[in-house]
Write a structure and sequence with these properties.
Blueprint lengths: L10 H13 L4 H9 L3 H15 L1 H11 L6 E5 L5 H9 L4 E6 L2 H14 L5 E5 L12 E7 L8 H11 E12 L1 H6 L12 H10 L2 E11 L3 E10 L2
Parallel strand pairs: 1-2, 1-4, 2-3, 4-5
Antiparallel strand pairs: 5-7, 6-7
The protein binds S-adenosylmethionine.
The site of S-adenosylmethionine has 25 residues, from helix 2 and strand 2.
Length: 234
């Protein structure tokens, strides 16, 4: 969920307003923690649906920028509610997608949805973080991640792990809000690390990705969303 999306009338706003009236305390720290790592009953019951709904356009932008082949092996970091993961899985023919997330609640919810959709043959779900990916070198044709870089322990370490597991010539697409959108919502103060497209580009270059394409959208109330594609050097 982009920070600015929270200022639109999303379902999460209504929940926030009700809880605020009841408790009379600011829920921003709580919501910021849930965005970084959905957890507890709130995370389990609400966060997946809220993230999928709020970030639908951003997930579409990343999908269109990644464009995995029908037989590709794909990785998604921080799948949250799983809408992008399931969309990719539905479009794959002989390919397969693995998703990894640090939240046990998101993993359990995605596992249930995957079984319900009958997609378990083409999806692998994993609990873990981008900084220590449980995959062998050059396992994937492409990888993506949407609205997670703010929470990575270390951007350089994450991108170097992705460089390790993506095949030479493979694609990486990171989707993220602009620095301005993060700052305007005061989320930098809540532990979100914002990165400009130039900083992502420098990290790509430092870890063997050739910057290839930067697609952006302006989402009303959410500011600028970027999808930056890099190609793993041969
Ligand atoms: C704001 S949500 C975004 C979810 C989804 N990608 C979307 O755009 O709707 C961030 C997700 O990234 C996960 N996450 C945070 N830090 C992570 C890390 N270091 N490695 C993997 N996943 C992480 C969280 O648990 C959460 O599910």
């Amino acid at each position: 969920m982009t920070p600015m999306a929270l200022t639109q009338r999303q379902p999460i706003d209504r929940i926030r307003d009700v809880l605020h009236q009841v408790s009379n305390v600011s829920l921003w720290p709580f919501i910021a923690r849930q965005l970084a790592r959905p957890q507890g009953i709130f995370g389990r019951l609400f966060m997946g649906r809220l993230l999928d709904r709020a970030n639908a356009a951003d997930n579409r932008l990343v999908y269109d920028t990644l464009k995995p082949d029908a037989d590709a092996r794909v990785l998604e970091i921080g799948f949250g509610g799983g809408s992008l993961l399931f969309e990719i899985a539905r479009r794959l023919e002989s390919g397969r997608i693995d998703g990894i997330d640090i939240s046990p609640e998101m993993l359990a919810a995605a596992d249930k949805k995957m079984l319900g959709m009958g997609l378990s043959d083409s999806i692998g779900l994993h609990l873990g973080g981008v900084d220590a990916l449980p995959f062998t070198d050059a396992s994937f044709d492409c990888a993506c991640s949407v609205h997670t870089v703010y929470f990575w322990p270390d951007l350089q370490r994450g991108i170097s792990e992705l460089a390790r597991v993506i095949k030479p010539g493979g694609r990486l697409v990171l989707g993220f809000s602009s620095v301005e959108a993060i700052a305007e919502n005061g989320l930098t103060d809540r532990g979100f690390k914002a990165f400009s497209a130039e900083q992502i580009e420098a990290a790509y270059l430092a870890h063997g990705f050739e910057p290839d394409r930067l697609n952006t959208i302006e989402r009303k109330g959410a500011g600028k969303i970027c999808a930056y594609r890099g190609i793993r050097s041969l």
